[in-house]
């Protein structure tokens, strides 16, 4: 009997790809044949974890560094506008996923690839959605790109919160409608209502109750009670982290830098990086960060994936590297400065670290404010307001706050005790068995 095949669609940044890679590892261990369809920039990364990969058009890191990407990060596109590079890639992405998913039992799509619904319909396959942020409507908080998670809501706020999810859905359909309708016509799928598939009178049988897996911890965002009213099967699995097939081998220079840091008890070491984000002036940002490190009297490992080209020991206080696995680095530092993307946020929380958050766009401000609510970070510093002075002050505040450190350690213990991958794989297996594919 052939090994059952599952196709996972991971569109976006490294932080979007890693949870899907973790699911693929879990499915591989459970006896399935997973293939991660993701950007060619991640091909070597996926293969390094022992998982098959298929190409997907686009490169988010390159996009964020482009002039168009900088406009996107500054919020200069209207909600219903599609960035031209994204619009150009979507037709090809649809066909790439269609080709990769041939012979699969199910398609698992990330939150930026919800258009996989149309591919699943074309192939008569069931669909599962796996998201690193809440995507099911609730009255308790809005879609995270629209606002924060409040501590309480009144009836009007609750109604607006519900509406924010519908609005995101409709705006996404309006933005991509022409491309998706062309795809559906090409593959002889029926026309959809003017506001998109959500408003169909009848979904195809295999798409009527799509399981939605939220790949984060309930200790970070508790499950809303009103999700019980959803027409879908909604789950919160816990965070999903991939397991490297080989231990990370740091350079001797990095090992020496950290050894020196650990030997200087009066000078804490922090990690500092902005993930896949990009800045307009990389050298100016580097000088700002170096000054902040000096002002805060700390040492720092600078994760330079946001565009910095320098590597190695930049000063007595700062070591820079393009990429270091978070699960290796974070346990060796006292705090982390990051952009509050979902992936880096998860890694910092698992390590039990307090954070200094510098959100750029999208759901990042909401995650940043959530860390403040949880008592594991000071108020965020939006990227447009970042200075060496306020960053240094925030670093000092975090490192001199034992209560914040204790809360971060306790939350880290809770998250490390969870097994999001095993939980998610169990749900996926049960669903596949129930639909008889």
Description:
Helix content is 43%, strand content 13%. The protein has 437 residues and is α/β, with parallel strands linked by helices. A seven-stranded parallel β-sheet has the order 3-2-1-4-5-6-7, with helices on both faces. A six-stranded mixed β-sheet has the order 10-11-9-8-12-13, with helices on both faces. The model has no long low-confidence stretch (mean pLDDT 91).
Overall, the morphology is: globular
Largest beta-sheet details: 7 strands, parallel
- Determine the strand fraction and express it as a percent band: 5-15%
Could you tell me the radius of gyration in angstroms? 22 Å
What is the third-level CATH name, the topology of the largest domain?
Rossmann fold
Helix content: 40-55%
Q: State the end-to-end distance.
A: 14 Å
Mean pLDDT: 91
Number of domains: 2
The CATH homology group name of the largest domain: Glycogen Phosphorylase B
What structural class results from the helix and strand content?
alpha/beta
Task: Write the element-wise H/E pattern from the N-terminal end onward.
Answer: EHEHEHHHEHEHEEHEHEEEHEHEHHHH
Strand order of the largest sheet: 3-2-1-4-5-6-7
Write the topology of this structure.
Layout: E1 5-10, H1 14-29, E2 33-39, H2 43-48, E3 52-56, H3 60-65, H4 67-73, H5 84-100, E4 106-109, H6 116-123, E5 127-131, H7 155-186, E6 211-214, E7 233-236, H8 252-263, E8 269-273, H9 282-296, E9 299-303, E10 312-313, E11 318-321, H10 326-329, E12 335-338, H11 342-350, E13 355-357, H12 364-373, H13 388-399, H14 402-417, H15 420-435
Parallel strand pairs: 1-2, 1-4, 2-3, 4-5, 5-6, 6-7, 8-9, 8-12, 9-11, 12-13
Antiparallel strand pairs: 10-11
Helix pairs in contact: 1-15, 5-6, 5-7, 9-13
């Amino acid at each position: 009997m052939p090994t059952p095949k599952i196709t996972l669609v991971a569109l976006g940044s490294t932080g979007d790809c890693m949870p899907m890679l973790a699911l693929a590892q879990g499915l591989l261990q459970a006896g399935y044949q997973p293939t991660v369809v993701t950007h060619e920039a991640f091909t070597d990364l996926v293969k390094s974890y022992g998982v098959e990969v298929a190409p997907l058009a686009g490169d988010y890191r390159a996009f964020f560094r482009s002039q168009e990407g900088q406009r996107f990060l500054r919020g200069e596109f209207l909600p219903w506008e599609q960035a031209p590079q994204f619009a150009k890639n979507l037709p090809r992405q649809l066909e790439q996923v269609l080709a990769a998913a041939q012979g699969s039992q199910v398609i698992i799509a990330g939150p930026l690839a919800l258009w996989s619904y149309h591919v699943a319909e074309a192939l008569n396959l069931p669909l599962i959605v796996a998201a690193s942020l809440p995507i099911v409507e609730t009255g308790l908080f809005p879609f995270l790109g629209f606002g924060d998670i409040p501590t309480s809501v009144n009836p009007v706020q609750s109604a607006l919160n519900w509406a924010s999810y519908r609005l995101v859905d409709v705006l996404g359909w309006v933005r991509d409608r022409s491309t998706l309708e062309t795809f559906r016509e090409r593959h002889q799928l029926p026309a959809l209502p003017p506001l998109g598939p959500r408003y169909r009178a009848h979904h195809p049988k295999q798409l009527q109750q799509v399981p939605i897996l939220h790949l984060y911890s309930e200790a970070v965002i508790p499950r809303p009670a009103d999700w019980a009213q959803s027409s879908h099967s909604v789950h919160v699995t816990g965070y999903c982290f991939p397991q490297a097939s080989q231990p990370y081998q740091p350079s001797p220079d990095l090992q020496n830098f950290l050894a020196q840091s650990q030997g200087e008890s009066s000078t804490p070491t922090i990690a500092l990086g902005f993930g896949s984000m990009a800045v307009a002036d990389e050298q100016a940002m580097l000088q700002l960060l170096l000054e902040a490190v000096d002002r805060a009297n700390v040492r720092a490992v600078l994760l330079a994936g946001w565009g910095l080209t320098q590597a190695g020991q930049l000063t007595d206080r700062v070591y820079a590297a393009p990429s270091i696995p978070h699960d290796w680095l974070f346990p060796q530092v006292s705090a982390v400065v990051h952009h509050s993307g979902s992936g880096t946020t998860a890694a910092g929380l698992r390590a039990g670290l307090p954070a200094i958050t510098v959100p750029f766009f999208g759901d990042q401000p909401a995650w940043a404010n959530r860390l403040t609510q949880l008592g594991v970070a000071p108020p965020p510093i939006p990227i447009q307001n970042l200075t060496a002075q306020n960053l240094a002050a925030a670093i000092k505040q975090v490192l001199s706050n034992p209560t914040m450190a204790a809360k971060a350690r306790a939350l880290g213990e809770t998250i490390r005790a969870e097994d999001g991958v095993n939980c998610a794989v169990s749900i996926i297996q049960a669903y596949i068995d129930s639909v008889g594919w």
